[in-house]
Specification:
The chain is of the alpha/beta class. Helices cover 43% and strands 14% of the residues. The mean pLDDT is 97. It binds guanine (GUN).
């Protein structure tokens, strides 16, 4: 149906994980076992699925992992005590606080309490600063996964016009800095941007991370460009399904069986205009966990003064 080249995130994630498993074997020969502590608070179904998948991937790659599940009534004080304990543990290289945290918990204070050298999500202000100034550190998993994908699929970034839609601390902002480091000419657009299509139509690389189902349409995409869709939106109504997927019999079957399907922030019909694109699902999603594994091994090495 689409004409652009599919950038297969699942395949790239598998290649990254193979590299990580090789690194883990090399570290084992030096008596080092990287360890990740994943903290999952409460009963948010999506978070439970993500964290379980993170822990399972650790097991598959030979990384030690520990799942800690405080009740959703936990206080900021109790969480700070937990983080302090994990910071002090010699066997823990990475600490992951799955977001969102419940409203009574001060998420900002907690993210700042994590030892920056164990901050495998790259959310600590110290790592934000290291990223901004080009010092070795830990970068957020989703945007660094996008850079890995572009590198490994041979899509040039240097001198290209890159447009990022979305300015979140987790994706949009670090994505812009990482693209800049690759010598792209970067524009960040957001909900207050006037004439958004004027920017996107000039984008050789368009990264969309705004959380709005099918927002980017065919007319907004430069023909032949690379479109990276970070969005993941669940489609449950027949009306929305038909708007995005009318005539797609494979999707139709999925939708009928499961009662829902996923659509990104890009209207799937816009992928026909692109030269290459990441599908949803199977594009950016699998890269996030692969990069978390890479960051855990990186943290283990950095903390011991080993070359990364
Ligand atoms: N919640 C949604 N995305 C993320 C992520 O990348 N890391 C963490 N810790 N929580 C999330």
């Amino acid at each position: 149906m689409a004409n652009g080249r599919i950038l297969d995130g699942t395949a790239i994630a598998a290649a990254i994980k193979e590299d990580v498993a090789r690194e883990v074997t090399k570290l084992a020969a030096q008596g080092i076992l990287p360890g990740l502590a994943a903290v999952l608070v409460g009963n948010v179904p999506a978070s439970q699925i993500y964290v379980r998948s993170k822990v399972k991937t650790c097991e598959a790659l030979g990384i030690a992992s520990e799942l800690i599940t405080p009740a959703d009534t936990v206080t900021t004080g109790q969480m700070l005590a937990l983080v302090a304990k994990l910071n002090a543990r010699e066997d823990i290289d990475g600490i992951l606080l799955q977001l969102p945290l419940p409203p009574q918990v001060n998420a900002k204070a907690l993210l700042e309490a994590v030892n920056p050298d164990k901050d495998v999500d790259g959310f600590h202000p110290v790592n934000v600063g290291r990223l901004q100034t080009g010092q070795p550190g830990l970068s957020p998993c989703t945007p660094s996964g996008v850079i890995e994908l572009l590198k490994r699929t041979g899509i040039p970034m240097s001198g290209q016009n890159a447009v990022v839609i979305g300015r979140s601390d987790i994706v949009g902002k670090p994505m812009a800095i990482l693209l800049l480091q690759q010598n792209a000419t970067v524009t960040v657009c957001h909900s207050k941007t006037r004439d958004l299509a004027e920017f996107t139509r000039n984008a050789d690389i368009l990264v969309v991370a705004m959380g709005h189902a099918g927002f980017v349409t065919s007319e907004m995409v430069k023909p032949g460009s690379t479109v990276i869709d970070v969005g993941m939106n669940r489609v449950t109504s027949r009306e929305d399904f038909d708007r995005f997927f009318a005539g797609d019999s494979r999707r139709e079957k999925m939708f009928r069986e499961k009662g829902s399907t996923l659509v990104g922030d890009v209207d799937p019909r816009a992928f026909r205009v692109a030269g290459a694109y990441t599908p949803v699902p199977g594009g950016v999603g699998p890269l996030t966990i692969a990069m978390l594994m890479a960051n855990t091994v990186r943290a283990a090495k950095l903390r011991r003064g080993l070359k990364v």
